[in-house]
Amino acid sequence: MDLRVTPVASKEDMEAFLALPFALYGEDPAWVPPVLPHLRAFLDPKRGPFFEVGEAQYFLAREDGKVVGRISAHVNHAYEKYHDADTGFFGFFDCEDNQQAAHALFQAAADWVKAKGKTKLHGPLSFGIYDEVGLLVEGYHERPVMFHTYNHPYYEELVTSWGFKKAFDWYAYIMDTPPAPIEELRRRRDEILSAAGLTITTGKTSEFIARAPEVLNMFNTLWSKNWGHVPLTERQFNDIFTQLKPILRPELVTFIEEDGKILAFSVLAPDINLTLHKTKGNLNWFNMLRLFYDCRIAPLKAVRAVILGVEKSHQWRKLHHALILNNMLTLLRWRTETNHIWCDCSLIPESLVKWNKTLQMFGGRRWRTFRLYDRDI
Hints:
The chain is an alpha+beta fold. It has helices at residues 11-25, 36-43, 77-82, 99-115, 155-160, 182-196, 205-210, 212-222, 234-244, 273-279, 285-296, 319-331, 353-361, and strands spanning 3-7, 54-63, 66-76, 87-95, 120-123, 125-126, 132-133, 135-138, 165-175, 200-202, 253-258, 261-270, 302-310, 342-349, 365-376. The strands form two sheets. Strands 1, 2, 3, 4, 5, 8, 9, 10, 11, 12, 13, 14 and 15 form a 13-stranded mixed sheet that branches. It has a two-stranded antiparallel sheet with strand order 6-7.
């Protein structure tokens, strides 16, 4: 077999890069195809928000002319500012069950970041810690929710056989069974709010989005101690909310204020993968209407907790408990005998022991694990 790994150097190469997952997962009933126009923009150095802080190179592995694998290599200058200047990254890794091809791709990525002065290869990250992160190592064969990675079980062997070692795990929890009757949930929420002398505001999506700079600053401050945190730029943050804005339901955007200042906030988003799975990632005008209907009008079936945060100086007031309880009460509006609505809470770093225990206390059960790996190069 003639195996070659070459950089993506043309439009045709990029289309091959984008097409590979369709060949690898096309028959997998759980796989959700990407929205290609968005992914093209995300990967484009001229349009993608990552390239405000980083550089990347894409590679293809071909065996006898057939594309059998792909990978990205990238450096993140924002990461270097907040962590170290020795780490380079890989992402967008997909490959046939072909150890030789996988190893050649990892070596190509390692060589590229090494030429940039790096001594460690870390990943998969596509591109940053708040994009799609990690290799799926627990929770196979279930449809991924929005912004989750998905891969075949054999990927783990492809990665570890090249010498990668576990660096860190991120967890996803599913909440699908209320931990107490509705009256009890409401009582516990109201007791917390009454003790704090505060109320929860919902339904002001436009106001929340208008206050995005305040939320961004709060996010970057709250998550600053988390493993691998790199502050989001305004452009990166806006890119996330540009995707979310058309699908957000007002009642799923929640915040707690005091004297006009946001103390705590929560955003749940309808899981767009429910629609993308049915449309095979195709968002023509008709499917856009279908997506809008599924997310904004139809009874909700699944949501993802995109973000929840509480100002550090107020965390002792258990406002995060109030938000969780309020979210449960909101989602239970759509629960019927035939509609078993559930919420994915992710991604939770393994280092946040108290937060992991809090989700378990409220009935969350871990259903997916995403792993990051390191190797010295």
